[in-house]
Amino acid sequence: MSLPDLTLYRQHREAFDAVVEGIQVPGLHAVYYSRPEAARVATVGVYRYDGVELFMAWGYADEAHCRWTAYRRPDGSWTPPRRGCPRVRVKPGTLHLPALNLHLLLLPPPYRVDHELWGVDTPSTGTLSS
């Protein structure tokens, strides 16, 4: 089994603060791809954190779970595909990829501050309006 060739797929959706194991993970960005394959639709999800690919999972849209998963190693190469969905543990503030023995500290993404709403005159001075 080899990794999917994403040039044969089209991007159909992306998610910011993607959901893993039913938990929204701040900063996890997922891009989903699909393509027709005979009478089925093949799908691939590529997951990144802070711009770095962590894992990809693929299978078919009509199946409840992923068929295969591969993890990006620190050297940039991919692990051989493994059967099933990504093995990921999510706890408040951390994402653990046991296959790589990798723990990520999840920081909330920076949010744009609406200075008018908060009564700040200008972002540069940071002074409060009365």
Give the arrangement of secondary structure elements.
Elements: E1 10-16, E2 19-20, E3 23-24, E4 28-37, E5 40-49, E6 52-60, E7 68-71, E8 82-83, E9 89-91, E10 94-97, E11 102-105, H1 115-118
Antiparallel strand pairs: 1-4, 2-3, 4-5, 5-6, 6-7, 7-8, 9-10, 10-11
Structural class per helix/strand content? mainly beta
Shape: globular
Taking the sheet with the most strands, its summary is: 6 strands, antiparallel
Gap from first CA to last CA: 65 Å
Domain tally: 1
> Number of DSSP helices?
1
Radius of gyration: 19 Å
N-to-C order of helices and strands: EEEEEEEEEEEH
Low-confidence stretches: 120-130
Share of residues in helices:
under 10%
Strand content: 35-45%
Would you count the extended β strands for me?
Answer: 11
Task: Describe the strand arrangement of the main beta sheet, using strand numbers.
Answer: 1-4-5-6-7-8
Average pLDDT confidence is 81
Task: Provide structural commentary.
The protein has 130 residues and is mostly beta strands. It has one domain. Helix content is 3%, strand content 44%. The chain has a 6-stranded antiparallel sheet with strand order 1-4-5-6-7-8, with no helix packed on it. Strands 9-10-11 form a 3-stranded antiparallel sheet, with no helix packed on it. It is globular, with a radius of gyration of 19 Å.
Output the keywords.
single chain, 130 residues, mainly beta, six-stranded antiparallel β-sheet, three-stranded antiparallel β-sheet, 1 helix, 3% helix, globular, disordered C terminus
